[in-house]
Predict the structure.
Amino acid sequence: MDKREMSCDVVIVGCGAAGLYTALSLPEGTRTVMLSKGSFEECDSMLAQGGICVLPEADDYDVYVEDTMRAGHYENRRESVDVLLRSSRSAINDLVALGVDFEREQDGSLAFTREGAHRRPRICYHADVTGREITSKLLERVRELPWVRMFEHLACADLIDEAPAPGESGPATPAACGGVVAVPVSEEESTRKADELGGVASDAVRIRARATVLATGGIGGLYERSTNFPQLTGDACSIAAAHGAQLEHMDYVQIHPTSLYEGPEASGRAFLISESCRGEGAVLLNRAGERFCDELQPRDVVTAAIYRQMELDGMPYVRLSFENVPDDVIRGHFANIYQHCLEAGYDICREPIPVVPAQHYFMGGIHVDLDSATTVPGLYAVGETSCTGVHGKNRLASNSLLEALVFSRRAAYRITTGESLSVEPTGEPPLDGRHRPCGGYRSGIDALARDAVGDDVGKPSGEAEATYPAIDFDGAGGAVEVPPAARKKECAR
């Protein structure tokens, strides 16, 4: 085989929560290649502050559905919302079984916080760095799987078309996806759009796979002010569309109401001030120090109110006051926000901070069904780059990480079995932190979960380690592979 060509069972483009959970949900021994345009840490899943939603009990189902639909202006796909909510408890149990440390009540049960447009607390969290806690634990676990090959600074530049099998072709038969074309990129190049990468043919790597999963995140890198990493430039959408994939609601972009205003000359990624701050009592103030809106309305409503107030005040920001939030909550629950604001010159325990809206999330994307399959055979999309219809026109706070997990697990099951994963009964299973296998095959999570229901669990089998031809990146951009042996040493530290 050519040194610039390799084959695998599944190639996953993106190493955020959705991509990582897909890899963990595939069968043991599935030869998997994962690509990250930047470093593994440069994904928006790492930045999520508020938390991840869960259906706390069956009686909350109707209210949670209505909260999600109302935030989305009732443009949500109702069946996708149903799958999200009924699958949420299994997703949270899996995270706990994989080592994620959520906040707890005194009796040991999960602690819940509240954010805007939620009528009750139903958000699991880890201080104000929930995304980092979840994604770093998923990354550690994937690194323990010897059949997964992981590359940093290797960007997807195109898809590989595969002609329909003989006898299956016709005028309306689309070509199937047979993998990706990837190019090594430096840190500087990683912030460019796919069509601007300028990779030369000699540097490109053709990665052939029977299933391709796009998990490249959102579009914040296209905006002047965004809470996203600059590597997120909507690559998967443009590439998939060029190969016939249907896109949906490309104009549904969420502007978060509160990012820290750090002056007119500030550049780079905007620092998010979590909506859970307002859920715990922080209030928005105008120039005169007066409240001017209901801070717990959906994000688009609050954002519009802030823009109106900025215009009335003739100011480039409004202020957020933590006066009603106890100091121990600020220094505990919001420790990361507190420290960042201190470094910027603001003590949120003593003074309000200037905040301004910033691009934050993308509700549109590549159209997928309930199994995350696109309209191109063999091509799947998960996470923010997909459009499952869960969010409608505006996302309900903390539904994004949950969507990433629920629909990536469904993608893995469909890739493996060709069937749809059955959905749990409402309010099941118990929120006990125990992993429950999907059935039909032994997945990476089955092998790694520290507390699981069933006998088909344990450490990854040494016999499952996959071998691949070496790829020589000498002198080609900044692509780096983390070999399995090094991963195991890192995880042992």
